[in-house]
Amino acid sequence: MSDRKRSTALALASALAGSAVLLAAPAAHADVVDVQYNCQTPIGDKSAVSPIDIKAVKEGDGYKLTMSFQKGVSSSPIELGKGAMSPSAVVMADGAEKASIPVSGPPNPEAAPANTPIKITDLSGTWTPKKSGKVTFTAGVLTIKAMGTTTTCTPGNSPKPSLELEVTAAGGGKDTAPPPAAGGDTLPQTGPADSALALGTLGATVLLTGAAGVLWLTRRGGRAPRARS
Questions:
Q1: 150 DSSP β-pair partners
Q2: Fewest CB atoms within 10 A around its CB: which of 12, 172, 184, 199?
Q3: CA proximity to 69, closest of 17, 113, 105, 15
Q4: What is the CB-side half-sphere exposure of residue 135 using CA atoms within 13 A?
Q5: How far apart are CA 153 and CA 35, in angstroms?
Q6: Which residues are within 8 A (CB) of 173 and not within 5 positions of it... i.e. 6 or more apart?
Q7: Would you call 184 helix, strand, or coil by DSSP?
Q8: Vertex 49: Cα angle to 46 and 54 (nearest 5)
Q9: What distance in Å separates the CA atoms of residue 163 and residue 28, rounded to the nearest whole number?
Q10: How many CB atoms lie within 10 A of CB 78?
Q11: Count of C-beta atoms within a 10 Å radius of residue 29
Q12: Are the C-beta atoms of residues 117 and 151 closer than 8 Å to each other?
């Protein structure tokens, strides 16, 4: 092959390999979704809408999920001092695997004025999938704890997923149990082909042994008796 043809072939192979890498890259689709939270507070029921963004970053065998609120969804009749409010929520996974993923965040970094929507800090949590495939992530129930009280906010508008992601389970979601060790008094496990070969060998051995016995008996039986003196 000439140098020119070899160079062309290598360039084509590299291009095809690059295309394969792009096709194999995990696909993700994210949307900022308006979620209408219906909140049960110590002073009555309230509701508010906040755009929700969910992101995922691969970490080891799992994924770190981050749920962000662009608007506050609840308020307090009195000022909440710095660090007085602790938020947590649930992210609902659906698709290749169903799961309820808990996420939480730090307390409010600044004081929250009275009767003002409380800014929710970013909530995060880690999830390790057991199955590989396409999974969607949707905002679930939000819980706000402040000054000994608990406010529960439930999505009331059946929000669509904020994130769609192709996930990969540890080991690709396949059985990765190691084969049994062969050593000492332990014999390696054999498959059907090995068993058939072993049985065939055993049968041939028995057949040859039987044939040898018959031949020996035949020769012994056919030998003329000696005359006694």
A1: 145
A2: 184
A3: 105
A4: 28
A5: 11
A6: 129, 130, 131, 132, 133
A7: coil
A8: 125
A9: 7
A10: 12
A11: 12
A12: no
Say which residues have a Cβ less than 8 Å from residue 124's Cβ, sequence separation at least 6: 64, 65, 66, 67, 103, 104, 105
pLDDT score at 137? 98
**Token code pair at residue 93:** 């996974």
Q: Between the CA of residue 88 and those of 37, 119, 171, what are the distances in Å?
A: 14, 13, 31
pLDDT of residue 7: 54
pLDDT of residue 172: 65
| Residue 27: both structure tokens together | 């696909």
Q: Which helix (H) or strand (E) holds 134?
A: strand 133-146
Contact predicate 103/90, CB 8 Å: yes
pTM: 0.63
- Residues in the chain predicted with pLDDT less than 70, given as ranges, are 1-27, 172-229
Amino acid 136: pLDDT? 97
3-state secondary structure of 75: coil
- What are the φ and ψ backbone dihedral angles of 203, each rounded to 5 degrees? -65, -40
Query: CA 113, CA 90: separation in Å to the nearest integer?
Result: 26
pLDDT at res. 18: 45
